[in-house]
Amino acid sequence: xxxxxxxxxxxxxxxxxxxxxxxxxxxxxxxxxxxxxxxxxxxxxxxxxxxxxxxxxxxxxxxxxxxxxxxxxxxxxxxxxxxxxxxxxxxxxxxxxxxxxxxxxxxxxxxxxxxxxxxxxxxxxxxxxxxxxxxxxxxxxxxxxxxxxxxxxxxxxxxxxxxxxxxxxxxxxxxxxxxxxxxxxxxxxxxxxxxxxxxxxxxxxxxxxxxxxxxxxxxxxxxxxxxxxxxxxxxxxxxxxxxxxxxxxxxxxxxxxxxxxxxxxxxxxxxxxxxxxxxxxxxxxxxxxxxxxxxxxxxxxxxxxxxxxxxxxxxxxxxxxxxx
Length: 324
Fold this sequence. Notes:
Elements lengths: L1 E2 L14 E6 L3 E7 L5 E8 L7 H19 L7 E6 L2 E3 L4 E5 L4 E4 L1 H9 L3 E5 H11 L9 E6 L3 E7 L2 E3 L29 H4 L1 H12 L6 H9 L3 H24 L4 E5 L7 H14 L7 E4 L6 H21 L2
Parallel strand pairs: 2-5, 5-9, 10-13, 13-14
Antiparallel strand pairs: 1-4, 2-3, 3-4, 6-7, 7-8, 10-11, 11-12
Helix pairs in contact: 1-2, 3-9, 5-6, 5-7, 6-7, 7-8
């Protein structure tokens, strides 16, 4: 188990005390947020895998984490909890429709979590939670129409339109699974040629290893090789930029975001990513609104912070209903 603080400068601000759980395919982040907005006891623990009951196994682990957190911080009395998970999520119904890496289908996770935690639960999608945090606390606070992309092993996204998250019944924001090459690789999702198979950090490393015969741990090494003139690396990096710029151009034509925020491992490339991507996108657009391309500010904590925001929103709504 890893434990580290989020700095007291985290801009959550005052509000209700809540629990927050950001469930990932490999790890789960958990924390307590007090009424001052401090994020306390941030932990990263392995996400459990129970083949017979994957949803039940995860919910049981959340209950155990909650007990440990509240024993550590007995002065904090949460009034709600937030739970975010990957996959296809119907926030309104509180159902996790599908997650290939966690093994569930149509799991009533909000109901299960409320029963296990004894608290009202704000349930949502991890990428949309991260997007909401970047919109409300991070890089995109100055904009009303925003797309937030997390580009790492895969590509996940979230849309905020006219200041409100757009979920599409749980299916919106999956830019990583937009068609980019109809003759390309088969994606783990089952489709052919998804953007994720070309432009994710995982795909860049995998494609370079296959082309060059030299195994690399990540996209960082491919970018360094491209800077040194390695032709395989140059081609694969160019393919990744081209496919990403084309999908952003489609977004500009259809959604017209004011800003696109990019986070995840690939964003660590900094100007080597953002400058050529901005040039390519600009060349593809004519009359369209040109979105600002911004680097995410909240890093790996964005999903947890967005989950805490959702829990606070729920607590506020429930409190408002109970007031005359």
